[in-house]
Design a protein that fits this description.
Order of helices and strands: HHHHHHHHEEHHHHH
Structural class: mainly alpha
Helix content: 40-55%
Largest sheet: 2 strands, antiparallel
Number of domains: 1
Strand content: under 5%
Radius of gyration: 28 Å
Number of helices: 13
Distance between the termini: 109 Å
Length: 308
């Protein structure tokens, strides 16, 4: 067993802590919400404190955490991701992304089993086995070509499957958007299903985690402009996260009308002042609008062409 010196441990932890927000996904990761913190503070200073949204009772604290994550992302994670993308050929990035996805795929298998989805458990186990062997440690993805589809499962998904409510929306420092139900799995529980957690060398475990965060942040660069151009980047990210998690927890079996249920039902708009509903019938007269020029324009003759 190798032991990392204390000062080296501290340096590695500090670097990981700074770049962890790459997993901020849509909280500061899908991110590059470049001037989002400035925009939000400007809006809040020019208006009263934003009204708390149903389903987001901790909005004031969440917005502050979002701004913190965003600042770290702009300073560290996004530049690292852009550099990685610039210097690494696309085939190499794809292969390395496949390797990391396969490395963390046991999380999916474990949560398939916890949800008693036996068919998915067998399929995902076969997928992991094929990619780990034929796919050379997961750098290639032959499992998809033979029909073994990839699934998306985690501990928060498992809790939701068994009826645990999502709870209030929550932005975690470094980890990004979440909710009370998803937070334990995102921060702690799911890591116990990953092989890298059981490596004897702490340095190797931290190195793999760091590479995974940079790779994940690189895949999210394409979302930067959409978030930056949103009227309220915080609300944009929140709504996107809540809608996606609701869709995943219900395995995609969601009616179109229910996509906004995690945030809460919309309240009816109050009627204008002096508005009263009466039983008196209202008569409406409809009169066609005629262009004045049409009245003087010559009409085409209904007779056959050539008639005198």
């Amino acid at each position: 067993m190798t032991h990392t010196p204390l000062n080296e441990h501290a340096a590695i932890r500090a670097l990981l802590l700074s770049l962890s927000l790459a997993g901020v996904l849509v909280g500061a990761a899908p991110n590059a919400w470049a001037d989002s913190a400035t925009n939000i503070s400007a809006k809040q200073s020019s208006t009263s404190t934003p009204k708390r949204t149903q389903g987001d009772p901790w909005e004031r604290v969440n917005r502050a955490t979002y701004a913190f994550n965003d600042a770290l992302d702009r300073m560290l994670a996004r530049p690292a991701a852009k550099t990685y993308k610039a210097v690494t050929p696309t085939p190499v990035r794809n292969a390395f992304g496949n390797f990391l996805e396969n490395l963390y795929y046991p999380i999916v298998i474990v949560n398939d089993a916890l949800q008693l989805k036996l068919i998915d458990t067998a399929s995902d186990t076969a997928r992991f086995t094929v990619n780990s062997t034929v796919g050379i440690a997961g750098f290639f993805d032959p499992a998809t070509r033979i029909g073994l589809k990839s699934h998306d499962q985690d501990f928060g998904h498992t809790l939701g499957y068994w009826g645990v409510p999502a709870g209030p929306y929550l932005v975690l420092p470094l980890f990004g958007p979440s909710d009370v139900r998803d937070a334990p799995g995102k921060v702690l529980v799911d890591r116990y299903a990953t092989p890298s957690h059981y490596l004897k060398s702490t340095k190797e475990e931290y190195g793999i985690t760091l590479m995974s965060l940079v790779d994940k942040r690189t895949t999210l660069l394409a979302t930067d402009d959409s978030i930056r151009n949103a009227f309220d980047p915080y609300a944009f990210v929140r709504n996107a996260y809540v809608a996606r998690r609701y869709y995943l927890v219900h395995d995609g079996k969601v009616m179109d009308e229910t996509y906004d249920e995690p945030i809460g039902n919309l309240e009816p708009m109050a009627p204008p002042p002096n508005f009263a509903v009466t039983d008196t019938p209202v008569s409406v007269s409809i009169r066609p609008v005629v262009n004045a020029d049409a009245l003087t324009a010559p009409t085409q003759s209904s007779e056959a062409p050539g008639a005198p």
